[in-house]
Amino acid sequence: MGCEWVLEMAEERGHRRLAAILAADEAGYSRLMGVDELGTLAALREIWIERLNPVVVAHHGRVVKIMGDGVLVEFASVVDAVECAVAFQKAMAVHNSARLGKEPIEFRIGVNLGDVVIHDDDIFGDGVNIAARLESHAPKNGILVSDAVHTQIVGKVAAAFTEVGEMVLKNIATPVRAWRWGSADASSSPLPLDRGKLPSIAILPFANLSGDPEQEIFADGLVEDIITTLSKLSGLLVIARNSSYVYKGRAVDVRKVAAELGVRYVLEGSIRKAGPRMRITAQLVDAVPGAQVWAERYDRTIDDIFAIQDEITLILATEMQVNLTEGEQARLRYTTTSNVEAWNYWALGLSHFRQAVTKDKVGAARPHWEKALALDPSSAALNSMLGFVHYFDARFGWWDDRETALARANAYADRALQLDPDNPDAHTTSSVVLMLKRRFDEALAHARKAVQLAPGSADAAIFACLVLASSALPEEAVVQGERAMTLSPHYPPYYLGLLGNAYRLAGRIEEGIT
Prior knowledge:
Serine Threonine Protein Phosphatase 5, Tetratricopeptide repeat, 3 domains, globular, eight-stranded mixed β-sheet, 514 residues, Rossmann fold, alpha/beta, Alpha-Beta Plaits, six-stranded mixed β-sheet, 52% helix
């Protein structure tokens, strides 16, 4: 209420103008204050005077205010604002290199171009709020800028920025596309999910109407592929398989399911397979009014299974009005294998793999996936999954010695990345293998890339949590662990262990214990 009153007063007494806003904040300020309050305050005063002020003056900016560990700076030029941000981060790198034996002081920076309200010497409005929100999600020692900023600086600033995608920012009405500058280990992971801002869907297990229990595996494989494809979209929240499958074999009320899983849409369907032919029915229900949005029946041959999957996922994205970022249209297609026989072996292996992480279950999946890969050696997904099998072997000592298992896992992961550099499973497998090899910088890069490529994947998020926590980045690990639980409300027990460990390492002991 107080902030709203201040903004109203500013609008009444002040005026508006377009400005570039730089918001910077020290990472880990509370912890450093707890360790050495006077030393931290003295270090910050030195930074404001010797590091910040010179670069702000050099880039024609105005320090609006300093708020303890944070600063707000206004610029008339977007180019000046971004160049100032880069110069300040580089100055801090020099500053920290001179702090021998002391913990580095690291900043996050957000830059936005927007309308601001001027009142006295202060500035208010969404232009400022977005800069502050971007700053809070920027990587340590890095910069996050809005798309409005990036559009203005292309070809004018030497620094290279990487697209992060659309971000849902707290208290900002519409998603903001962001771009990141930072060191090799800077975060580019999507933000925690906001259920209220994104279309959301649960894909229920398709009913098997064939009268043949073995066809359950075929039906489950189809649903798994649809979920996997939709999980690549940043503008959609899709519930993970292990949560939607708690309803398998049950007569359900779609509205009740939607309420329990926290989604608006539910897809349900059935499969009847006989010889080379199949009938697939699917219907999309909007659970708010309880009304059918779309329904279709496919009478096709088995060879059409991949085309049907592509058609269903595209229709779902269209009907739910999912905003597709650049590149996502191309990713909205099925990519496991183009060989029907290989697909059947993949589905058989998955029926074991999804049950539990045990030697028996994972071991039962392995020969099916090896047969699938023999039929389609060019499948990045199959190489990835076999790599994950050998990662488990290396971690738990099931079959081969550790080095042999790691070498096999690494070979499969490398092959998967060679076949498809944008396959999220390949990056997840690479991340956990490299983690076991203690090559943490590379592991981090692959874990973050996996989450970026499949922002709706609970698997990508939870294994990113593991890698991040193991790489001394527990705060970021917590974000991904919580994200995984949002995507999978009926999460497996090991999610709790991984998130609890991340809480512990982040110093959030009570949450870790819980």
